[in-house]
Amino acid sequence: MKPLVNIARYHLVDRVTYLALPWGFMIFSFLVNLVIASMVPSAPGGYYTGGLLTLYCFLFACGALSMSRSLSFGLMLGVSRRVYYLGTALLVLVLGAVYGLGITLLQAVERATGGWGLGVNFFRVPWILDGPWYQTWLTAFVLLVLFFLYGMWYGLVYRRWMLPGVAAFIAAQMLVGLVAAVALALTHNWAAFGHFFSATLSLPLLLAVLAALAVLLGLGGFTTLRRVTI
Amino acid sequence: MTPTISTSALSRRYHGQVALDNVSLSVEPGTVTGLLGRNGAGKTTLMRIITGQEFATSGTVQVFGQPPAENDAVLRRLVFVREEQAYPDLSVAQVIRVASWFYPNWDRDLAGQLLADFGLPAGRRIKKLSRGMRSAVGIVIGLAARAELTLFDEPYAGLDAVSRQLFYDRLLADFAEHPRTVVLSTHLIDEAADLLERVVLLDHGRVVLDAPADDVRGTAVTVSGPATAVDEFVAGYPVWHRQQLGSRASVTMPGPLDVAAQAQARALRLSLEPLSLQQLLVRASGSSADEKVSA
Hints:
The complex is a heterodimer of chains A (about 230) and B (about 300).
Chain A: H1 2-12, H2 15-39, E1 47-48, H3 53-67, H4 71-74, H5 81-112, H6 115-119, E2 120-121, H7 133-186, H8 190-200, H9 203-226
Parallel strand pairs in A: 1-2
Helix pairs in contact in A: 1-5, 2-3, 3-7, 5-7, 5-9, 7-9
Chain B: E1 5-14, E2 17-27, E3 32-37, H1 43-50, E4 58-63, H2 72-75, E5 78-81, H3 92-102, H4 108-117, H5 131-144, E6 149-153, H6 161-177, E7 181-185, H7 189-192, E8 198-203, E9 206-212, H8 213-216, E10 220-226, H9 227-234, E11 241-245, E12 248-254, H10 259-267, E13 271-274, H11 277-284
Parallel strand pairs in B: 3-7, 3-8, 5-6, 6-7
Antiparallel strand pairs in B: 1-2, 1-4, 8-9, 10-12, 10-13, 11-12
């Protein structure tokens, strides 16, 4: 366990990348939205932003960096690829839990202050980051972990096959989407698919799907790391 | 005793290019081995496979009696200082602090001493350091880690002569107090020669020489003087290399010479010079790569 914790600590030494930038930029985005919200006439349903996405994008970038820029020295430290990956995954879980809690707290403040007095919904994303506090926390956590693991896989693909590899990786994902879309069309299941999203899919089910996706991304990244040479 | 490193018929091919070809060697605990050879001879590939960072195409490698790849029990007992190690965007002090968490025998005082000796500014970011200073960071980690197996791959790119000497001195001093197994790959053979107990010479991925350094020294002499006298003297001996400038010739031949031959050389007013390790290895990895140098 100690090597895993040490790998997590190794990443956290770079506080600018893992702490200051994600939160700094998200707060900046939040303030920009507050200023804009104070200038525009208040909408009847409240003011919605997509600004929270900046935090998720930064975690994606952190994931990519953790498996590209930090990898070479990380593997100099007498650990296997497996320990390096699991240690980073430990960091992901801790950051996801803490940052998710941060979002949950800020959402509670947002609700209590009537959207910061301006009807702004920055930390509340209807249907996804919504509901009781523990539900918001859990969803935020799963999504943060998902983005980080996805970034890690990109970093590893880049590390192993450089830009052509990343291009092929993106193309492969588009192909998977295309095949799924064509299959839905050919089997005339688009309507059922839409129905599934609008009616059947509940938040717990969505969470389960996202968590399964996160596990899948984690396994994909780990498989890619297994044969990485530095 | 289990050898610290043993490889058997180890080969590595990249897209048809042979980087390592049937390498079988064994490194005993508590020794300093020089891994020598030209650029592209396979030194780095060999060290990367030994440290589990690269995978062999065929053959086996064991470190402390176990395969090293993905083996934490082996990996935590070794440190590998690579030429041009890439670091994340951290300061010198941060990198040293991180390293100290991972190596069980880490010596904090030694690390501090070495940082001062090499004049490394603790607060400076690694990416702002000069090439030589970045190399020095790797050396500090390699020495202060006090790992049972310490591998240095050309650790002093860009380091000046004073710092290189400092590295040799520190390595020797610390090795004497805390014996460990050291493998050092280097181009600066004569500089490091006194350090090496054993030399392994790679050429085109193959081991062309594997012998105690003392046996290798003195295995060849250069005889020089008037061409006619030189030719008279070397008649009957195998000649490795001959060059002539005007009426003077210089011939490299296997040594060491016995007393009678030395007396004869003096009588002919010829000068005898043992070939340095470096010159010897240049010969051995030169055109005659197929001939094994007998030591």
